[in-house]
Amino acid sequence: MIIHNMMEDAVKDILEKQWGNLSISCYCSECKMDVLAMSLNRLKPHYIRNRAGMMYTKANLMTEQSRATILTAIVESSKVVSAHPCHR
Amino acid sequence: MIIHNMMEDAVKDILEKQWGNLSISCYCSECKMDVLAMSLNRLKPHYIRNRAGMMYTKANLMTEQSRATILTAIVESSKVVSAHPCHR
b vs e for A8-20, b when ≥16 Cβ sit within 10 Å of the residue's Cβ? Predict the structure, then answer.
């Protein structure tokens, strides 16, 4: 069963672009993945199963409002990860 | 960046077990994926990035309450897909 959460792509995209600008105590890849997972848990998922749904959802997630909501989730999550880094 | 939404596994598991019991107008694989995607969009995601988080989250998603919440989302989604099947 092939489905995909388009919100993953949107958060990864913004996280990649903003990672260097975030005020975080550690910039390792594990902390980055923690910020990604925590941000996704704070945002409404947008699962789709076909290409038509993919284009429609992608357009919806590119609005200024959506990007602002996603960036807010990333900033909030980076604060938590920064205060409680979870290294193995 | 490897992360995973554990809710996907939980919904897939219950959907597989209950698929034959659902009252739905079409039992094709496309409708099944639509029910899966729609159910996931109704449920809070549980993204994790490591094995420890995986076991912890899996245990949380196996409770009676969680399974009831997931089944409710599946039943509601199957009603929508049943009324509006989206075949290509």
Answer: bebbbebbeeebe
